[in-house]
Each structure stands twice: as structure tokens, then as C-alpha cells.
Predict the 3D structure of the following.
Amino acid sequence: MALIGPGGRPIGGAKPAPTAHSAYVKDSGLETFAADVIEASREVPVIVDFWAPWCGPCKTLGPMLEKVVNEAKGAVRMVKINIDENQEIARQLRIQSIPTVYAFKNGQPVDGFMGAIPESQVRAFVDHLMGGEGPHEHEHGGPGHAEEVLAAADEAFASGDLAMAAQAYAHVLQDEPGHPKAVAGLARCYLKSGDIERARKTLGLVRPDGASDEAIRAVDAELKLRESAPEAGDTAPLRAKLASDPNDHQARYDLAMALDAADKREEALDHLLEIVKRERKWNEEAARKQLVTLFEAMGPTDPRTIAARRKLSAILFA
């Protein structure tokens, strides 16, 4: 799934996806959307594919949808919406990532999904839309399914494949809206891509009983760190200050903040621990409080959290 960055532009790029036409597939836009989708869906189900030329996964999903729709021979129709040319429609329908697919019946959206899915699930989706008893519900749900997809999403995120991770998190949210770990995961994808605003909005999608979930708290803490982080810059002046005066706690604290902003968290942790060691109460325990925020952002099972907590305990109870 392609994430939409600031101003509706993509995170990453791709060559334009070809547009195919048939008796059952057509392009549409703001002026014809009502007739092509709303009115047409009163006679036959209409699938709306939101895509953009720069979206890599769209190049896989779009042709697959068209193939299945064409095979249905009029039992269902498809409309393609290029969000670059129709940003107003994307805003009205709150499209946050692509590909996104909505299905309309009787003038109303009745189903949908985000991200590129396998052809078997595309067929099940179309079959379900046409009133069949296809495996759509079974394939997307079922005991243990969310856990399996979340595990795959976490693995993709850890390997740096943000698009694959976001697609998997969105897959879970399709079945279980507001799932805290899926919301947190998708928010992390936006955060990792640098879109702090969209990450914050994504966190707001969590269901009420999941607001205190550990994963949600961790992303919220990470967001606060990013929002208060200084601009990344040259740390040499701060290092020089410390070299001349190791007890310059403000310089050390500023250096820790700058290092964390530069994605050098372990070194940042070491400097904060050093402040606590040298003067625990400095600036109303600012260093210890920042350590606690970092621990929450990383999560209790992160090896960096475990190691730093152990060092902090040794300092505090020495």
C-alpha cells in the first residue's frame, strides 16, 4: 500500500499505472462520480478503485480487479478514480492511503478494503458483493488471523518495508476497525516516513477500549518526542562544551536530545543516564523524566529499554 504524504503526494514513487477500458470498467471524476457510482449502483454493484500513477501496489491490484470484474460480465461494474486528478473526492471519502477500494450498492458504500490483496481475496470480495457465499468473510477474519497478519506486519516494519507493513496493518483494520495494535502499527509507518500529522490522526482511530494499550501509548510517546525534538544539526559544538566541562548538564541534555533526533537513541540514553548519575535532581529530574518517556516509546521489551532501565536502577539505588 502506498502512503500519501503531505499535500497528497506519495512516499516513494513509481511509474504510471496503465489505464484499461472495457464495457464494465471506466474512469471517472468529480463531475461524473454521482452518475457513474451513486446512480449506477442502484442497478448493479459498483466497485470504486482509488489509485494514482505513482502508486506501485495499484499497478498490481488494478488489473486484477479489472480482470475479475470483466469475468463477471456485467454482474458488477468498476470505476477507477485517479486521486491526483480528483483530490476533492479523496478528501470527501477520507482516503488516507492507496490502493483503497469501496463497493457501492443502492447509492451507498457497503464494503471495502485497503492495500493490494491476493487474487483469491479479490474474487471472494467480488463474489460476496454479488450476493454469493464466497469466502470473503472467512478469509479476512477467523481466530488467530489478526495475530498472524500483525506478526507479518511487524516483521515487514522491522525490515524497513513500510509499504508492506502498512498494507498488513490496514488489512487488520479492515476486519477489526480500531484494533489498537494495528492502529499503532499504521501510525508508526507514517511516523517513520516523517508524516507526524498523519501519524497523529491515525492514532485517533483507535477504539475507546484500546486507548490505553501499550502499543498506542508507545507511539503516542514517540510522537511527543518527535514533536519536541530539535532540528537535526551539527553536534560538534555541544560535544566541545562537554569536553571542556563534563558537568555542563544542559549541554549534555541538549546533546542527548539532538542525538535522539538524529536516530542515535542509544547514545542519547547514555548521556541522560550520565546526567542522572552526576546530579540526579538537576532541572527537576529532567534527565530521568526524559528517560521514562524514551522507555515508553521503545516499549518494555525493547533490549535498549531493558539495558537502560537496569543501568538507571543501579544508579538510583546505589
